[in-house]
Amino acid sequence: MFIFGSLTKCMEKIIKENNIEKYSSAFTLSDMEIFIYPELLQALVLANIMSPIIWEWKKDPWFCDIENKSFNYKLNRVKQYIMERTVFNLDLDTWGLTTKETEINRFKNIIDTDILAQSNALFGYEGDKYYFDIDIRKHFGLDKYSNNIIPYWKTETIEAMMAFRFKPNYNIAAGECVSFSALYAAALFILAKIPLEDIFLISTPLHSQNFICQNEGVFTNNRRIVTKKMWFNGTELSQKARRAIENEKITIVSNLSGYIHCMYHDATINKAKYEYFEQQLTNFLKIDFSTEVFLNFIRCHSQYQYMFQYHVKRKQTNLYICLKDIFMRETNSKNSFSNESRNALLNEMPNHLFSSYPLEDKVLFNDFEKYIEENRIITTCKAKEYLLNNCSATSSKKYIDSMFEEIKTFISTTPHLPDKSKTYIPTTPIEISPDMTQNDIIQYLKSIREESEVAELSFYVYRDMNTIDWHPFLKAAWQRNPVSVKGMQNLSVYERYEIINNMNNVSIYDGNRISQPDEAWNFGTGDGIEKAILLANTLINIDNHKDFIIYIKDKQVILKSNTYGTFEFDTKKNIQLPFLIKCNKALHYDLCVNYVNF
Questions:
Q1: What's this model's pTM, rounded to 2 decimal places?
Q2: CB burial string 453-483: b at 16+ within 10 A, e below
Q3: Dmax over Cα atoms in the chain, in whole Å?
Q4: What's residue 147's pLDDT?
Q5: CA–CA distance, 305 with 296 (Å, rounded to integer)
Q6: 128: in domain
């Protein structure tokens, strides 16, 4: 006979406040879910900090004595470690597809569809012209589906990122941009001892990255970092890094103190911290006009390189060369025309590219450079005026106006931040420092779970199954894991059981934390409890069969169905309470979770 236990305090809170969608989103972390529930961003960062994985990295000799190094050294050390062990992944197959109608229906009581269309690339947003020039649906491989089909694009925990090495065609970790954003925040906190208060996660409709408010500031961008100098260096990499901030509105800014969101009137971020971030970011995005900045500008705006020629003297001979030829050579050289290695670069140039006579209709760059250097601090207006007054090259002169309009944009970007005229809701501060140990942080977060929803959510993202309500986990497992269903849809129940049972029997999560069905399926490995839930996912979504129970007894996970019989799996997990997961025919994609004594 089953004796049903009482609901946990956390479970009562979730059900009472109708937060089931939010808490179930903590397990799937799709781009849409994070957009709706921005508190999940910091919850993911905290979950990654609680995870043992990055703490293990700390033992690597690569990080020996890192705490005594400079800020830039720390950043580069962490960046290089991540770059060598990860790749960027944003395919449609890993986490599967959903529909616009499904997602809008889930959040119909929260969402303003007009604002959604202005803020989400898959619901009508067209902020970054680059992506829409190339057709965004075609760019992401969605053109083969009807317009209502959209990807889940789930954000990976650190465990799921590391588990990509088990997938075919991968041999290292992988993740999408939000995953890298959360990974960098956790890694910089643990390895470089950068306080979370200085790390701001920034989301735009098409991208996520972090801004670190130390020194001049720095962006973490997927696997890379971008300093202020790099931001203005005119390389292809920096132009890609600039694109989101230059062209898109920032929908979410998240910090340890809370978040601010373009769609919500209330903000939980500390207002003073947000204003500090705004000022730091604004300063980062501006630079004074100089020769180096000008050259960096025309490096990435090659149409203006034809306007200029450069004069050099070799063996008392005057020679002239077009800047276009110089920059073409620079792309395959370690030297640069815009710094002290200029002469080395010019010495690499083939003789046939030089002319003994001034090139026709081109501005002599030497004179323009001399004017800028002599005036030290110069405005773009003064530089433009000089060129207009001293340019005898007729064909070049007509491009000066348009060139300087683009220069103004290049040297000064105004970020499209969420309006700070919000109602700021005070929340319980989360006070963790880089000097705390992993266990100290876990125990501290446990102590504030009832006062801090972000702390509470972090244990859901972390999958601490002995202290959280299972109901949101299973709701997510059986409603938003389509890849395993698609992978086994043409197999019988017994064929599915054989495949699942023969998978590697190791969870990607340590201890009593467990994966979602598509995590186990994608990475081909899972503990017995994960395998039982994976098989149940196929019963519900392939066979429309909900009349089954799952329970654990004597290190065996048993899935029992009146229709299909009994399926057993071995488990190494030590779930504290025996439990029964029960479904019946009257429930449509729903479930009951009951803790039981046998």
A1: 0.90
A2: bbbbbbbbbbbbbeebbbbbbbbbbbbbbbb
A3: 103
A4: 73
A5: 11
A6: yes
pLDDT digits (tens, 9 = 90+) for 266-287: 999 999 999 999 999 999 999 9
Residue type, 123: F
Number of domains composing the chain = 4
Q: What number is the average pLDDT over the span 149-173?
A: 94
User: Checking DSSP bridges between strand 266-267 and strand 423-424, what pairing results, if any?
Assistant: parallel
CA distance 290 to 373: 8
Q: By residue range, what is the domain housing residue 132?
A: 97-151
Contact 497, 567 (CB under 8 A): yes
Q: What's the one-letter identity of residue 451?
A: E
Cα distance between residue 470 and residue 139, in whole Å: 38
Which whole-number Å values give the CA distances from 98 to 102, 192, 389, 480, 560, in the listed order? 7, 38, 60, 8, 30
pLDDT digits (tens, 9 = 90+) for 176-209: 999 999 999 999 999 999 999 999 999 998 889 9
Task: For residues 50 and 186, give the distance between their C-alpha atoms in angstroms, rounded to a whole number.
Answer: 9
Which residue, of 151, 169, 192, is where some domain finishes?
151
Strands (E), 439-529: none
Other beta carbons within 10 angstroms of residue 393's beta carbon come to: 19
